[in-house]
Amino acid sequence: MMIEGFVALYIFMLAAFTGYEVISKVPVILHTPLMSGSNFVHGIVLVGTMVALGHAATPLEQLIGFVAVILAAGNAVGGYVVTERMLEMFKTSKGDK
Are 76 and 44 in contact (CB under 8 A)? Predict the structure, then answer.
């Protein structure tokens, strides 16, 4: 079942508005856990791209699907690397005590 264009646009706009409202009300101290949660969403995007690649029939669709998988994987891995670096900033060094 395909989503019609206007319904998909409506869902995208509603998700963007909801995301903006939710994130703007999150305190700054919770941005790092929120970023980790967004990495979870990127993992779902990666799974979606792999499913789309699995259903690709033509070589052009397979190429686009392959590029999508590479970009989604890079996005997920990069998000976890950035989160790790941010969490390192909150650790205290033992030499300071």
Answer: no
28: left (phi over 0), alpha (psi -120 to 50) or beta: alpha
* H or E stretch at 74: helix 59-90
| pTM score above 0.70 | no
Q: What is the CA radius of gyration of the chain?
A: 18
**Structure tokens of 84?**
């790790």
The residues near 32 (Cβ < 8 Å, ≥ 6 apart) are 83, 86, 87, 90
pLDDT tens figures, 15-46? 999 988 888 888 877 777 777 777 778 888 89
Amino acid of residue 26: V
